[in-house]
């Protein structure tokens, strides 16, 4: 399956799949189920972060619904929401897309940071994962989870293990522990075996729970 125009996929994906299938019995079964589907990056940092904020603590399906209403409110296109357009809407206006008050405030704060040049977009490629996380969590409403989603979906860093992610923990529970709840320590132990491609394994576990592609 060729990537859609304007969409970038990781050059390490095939190598990662071979590595994971060799190292992990669950991945060996999961990976072939999804054919040529893979992580993709649409190339816009602000839109990726905004979409991550809208998806916090809700299901993939609910997040998609809210995002579609938000994009419609912004006047499209879905792949590139402009910070200035977000700032043109107050919190009550943003809430009509199905956003909570808090998420609406977070989106406006994110937009203000981008408009004011307070994030170092051009330096991110040279920064390590933890340095980028530290910069992003300084923005109101962006916690470690959202920063890790950014590392995976925008920068396509290969070795992120988002232990605060509900879907990852559920995926490990279902696929490795017969549905029994898992602790962060247990999840970390499972994830350590996926290095240096923990992002890729995480993506496949998300897909195992929901056929809708995880997309930010």
Automatic annotation (TrEMBL):
Alphabetized UniProt keyword annotations: DNA damage, DNA repair
Enzyme Commission numbers on file: 3.2.2.21
CDD domains: ENDO3c
Domain HhH-GPD: 54-210
Catalytic activities: Hydrolysis of alkylated DNA, releasing 3-methyladenine, 3-methylguanine, 7-methylguanine and 7-methyladenine
Similarity comment: family membership: Belongs to the alkylbase DNA glycosidase AlkA family.
Name of the protein this chain belongs to: DNA-3-methyladenine glycosylase II
Organism the protein comes from: Inhella crocodyli
